[in-house]
Amino acid sequence: MSYRQKILKFKLIRSLSSLKITLVCLFLLYLLTLGGMVSQIHEGLYLAQQRYFESFVFLLFGFLPFPGAQAVMWVLLVNLVCVALTRFVYQWRRVGILIIHSGLLLFLVSAYLTLHQARESHLTLSEGQAANVSVAYHDWELAIWEAPLKEDSSLTDREVVSLDTNRFHPNQTIELVEQGFRISVKEFYKNCEAFSEQDSDAPLNASGITHLQSAALQKEPEKNKPGGVFSVTTGDQKTFDILLFGAETRPVTIKAGAKRYHAILRLKRFPLPFVLRLKDFRKEEHPGTTIARSFQSLVEVQPLEGKKFNAKAWREKLIAMNEPLRYKDFTLYQASFSVDESGQESSTLAVVQNAGRLMPYISTLVTVLGLVTHFSMMAVHSRKNTTNRKRHD
Question: pTM of the prediction?
Answer without folding.
Answer: 0.72
